[in-house]
Amino acid sequence: FRQSDIPKRLIPGTIALGAFTFTMDSLPGTPQIQNIIPTTFFKTTTWAAPWLGLIGSVVILVAGLTYLELLRRRAAKAGEGYGTGHSQEPEPVEERGLPHPLIALLPLIIVGVMNKVFTTLIPRFYGPTSEVSLPGLDHPVAVQVSAVAAIWAVQGALLLGILAVVILAFRPVTSRFAEGTKAAVAGSLLASMNTASEYGFGSVIAALPGFLVIKDALRAIPNPLVNEAITVSALAGITGSASGGLSIALAAMADQFIAAANKAGIPLEVLHRVASMASGGMDTLPHNGAVITLLAVTGLTHRQSYKDIFAITCIKTATVFVVIGVYYLTGIV
Known about the structure:
With 333 residues, the chain is mainly alpha-helical. Helix content is 72%, strand content 2%.
């Protein structure tokens, strides 16, 4: 952005497009928690409704890039550049001797491929249920594999991705481990505390009597997919957390969604994809932990950049209903 003289205030919106939208819950197989939570309730996998997910991802990406490009051109026409006096500016990087870009891409590819492989192999290996004997328990613990297969698959894939990073970049990782760990711990604590505080805030909201009124009002929407999309998006907005709103919505109303979908002949994979995508829409209100963290990391304020983050997530929210329309028009899953 600095080299291209693009206003720094557009960075959060650009990052939001890449991190908060289609990669978070639209792309099939994404290992994000918003794509994993529905698997427990609907007995699906992270690859549920792949074509609807891909269609939604393309719509979000094209619309988001178009919006950001319009802002860039408008700023250039007005003579606005990157600006000066910013905080949280990156340190100069020595471009000579940098590793091959494939080293950065290969672990990501490994995670995606192995997630698919584990998703297929785990149910075959364990069967419908798996029993584990633990010390101190008289009887073995039985686990329904369909409810946890997606979690196990993602964990295994991420572990292999981490091992790939260590193997491919052993020298840089080991030489900078102590220094890098300090920055990593500080950054993770900031993100974790922001997100945890907002999740706790959402839990308090869900315990209020007024929340029951909202939940009962949402139940009156007749169409099962529209009902689910509005319910999840509304609760995510109220709680300020995509995962929190999604968990609360499905914990309270998953059985109702499943019954309505079965009655209408709608596959549970479609319920999964709609719920997952809807969670990542209105959750990015100003009090959202990820928004606060993003602005803190980039050294910008809500006044400078929040409107672009909100616009990007509005595109994401509208795309959920585009996907619903595509399903009803074509029946594609």
